[in-house]
Amino acid sequence: MVEGKGSSSTFSKKKEETSPLLKRTLLFALQLSFVFTLLIIWLTSKGLRESKSLWVLFFYSFPAEFLIATIPHEPALIYFGKFYPPFLVALIAVASTLITEALNYSVFKFITDIPPFQRIKRGKAVTKIVDLFNKAPFLALLVAGLTPVPFYPFRFLVVMAAYPAWKYLLAVFLSRTPRFIFLSFIGHAIKFPDYFLIILFVMMLLFPYLTVLRNRLKRKKGKKRLESEQKIAFSRTLSPQGLKITCLVNPLAANKKWQRRKKLRILIKKYIHGEFIDSPLSKEEIVEVARKKSIESDLVIAVGGDGTLADVIQGIIEAGQGKRISLGIIPLGSGNAFRKSLGIPKNTKKALRLLEEGEVREIDLIEIEGKIAGFASVGATAFVTCEKLKHRIPGLAGHLLAGRKLIQLEKKESEIELFKGRDDAGNYFENKKMKLCFLECVIGKTNYFGYSWRIAPQARLDDGFLDLTFFEINGWKYLLFFPLIYFGIFQKTQRHFKVTELILRGKDLPLQYNGEFLGVREEVKARVLPRALRVIVSPQRRNKNL
Prior knowledge:
The protein is 52% helix and 21% strand. The chain has 21 helices and 14 strands. The chain has a six-stranded antiparallel beta barrel with strand order 7-10-11-12-8-13. It has a four-stranded parallel beta sheet with strand order 2-1-3-4.
């Protein structure tokens, strides 16, 4: 009798445990079936595909936003924007997107509760990513939803981080709404022909597969090239008999990439025959070493990111050797704004080959408050750079975390004095004084900030002018229009000048140069240093920055 009771109670417990699992599995299967049924109906029904009914857009959004998004959403929004007001199109798309994201939350929760995924969830790498996401989850979701970055990883993250579903859906609503309005407005304003949207649809559909194919081809070519490169020595331009070379390495750049990548160190040291200085140094020490070595050397090579490059350039200019020696660059950092503006390859092997095959060009620099820079800013981005220093999260994640405070910023009035320049209309002036309320003043010679941010699209490295852009908007508008700012489009709507010298006067002006915070000032002075530095660049440069 006792055994019978025990076995029946065990059976009932198992039944209680399996019952919710069975229900969730059935729900999961129904959700998948629903979305894929909609996708099949869409693909097989010519009438639906050609219909202009907003119901089609509503149901199209389910497969377009489900899990890893099997079909692209953007062409549909542009298409329906041709026939309906942008706000109405966005409202319909957002409504169906919110329902789909609620399904996604449920489906991913089911997947992550499966035992194999539980083990993955407890892994060190996943734990670090989740911890990083938890630093600013709402901001991360806003940025990912507003910009064209892949969104599906965040669908996993919100579940693994146990982020509340209502907060997740709120972030989706706040980020997707302006994005959908923008895409619908493009369709409403431009009226793209249907064949163009079909081509765009096919390209976006095939893009992930083409990227995988391209990477495979690159790896194959890279192996062949490496075999041929191993037979090549840098005996012509980088020979110790021909040139005296100093290579200054920042071993801490890009999360200690130099120290972590043994093969990378061997490759660079094999190709460059010269003196290597790769011990950890402070900014001041790098500047001092660069100052001394630029006097003794014919070629100085900076190995690191924008910060390392800025310090090396500072030392070369302070030594008065900018027009005598040549500067080579091997990018190892995370931002690499200078590299991108000069067209220097990010790939180390290609950058090494460029040192041998490239040509020397003279470029302008910025002198700002005694520091030498390729780009600088006063205002919002300098404030974010300062905020980033308050926590230890490196790279892009650190900037995104600090960037959440942009929404609090307002425009400030400053007195501005410009010398020997011209405005966008081409009107030349010797001296111009004005008062402006602005959030951000970008002072550029390079086109880019870090992470391919095209902040100064009209800047040129050899035109003899500072490129100035004044963002006369507040912080929340800056965040709202950030995708357009990132690609250099919104800048065309802002006040812009080309000048040789600039003075800014105002209260509490945060300043950064080359991504380094320089403090808060009441007055900022900057001037162009024309043709101040000789740099090795590609002889077949297509970048308009030079």
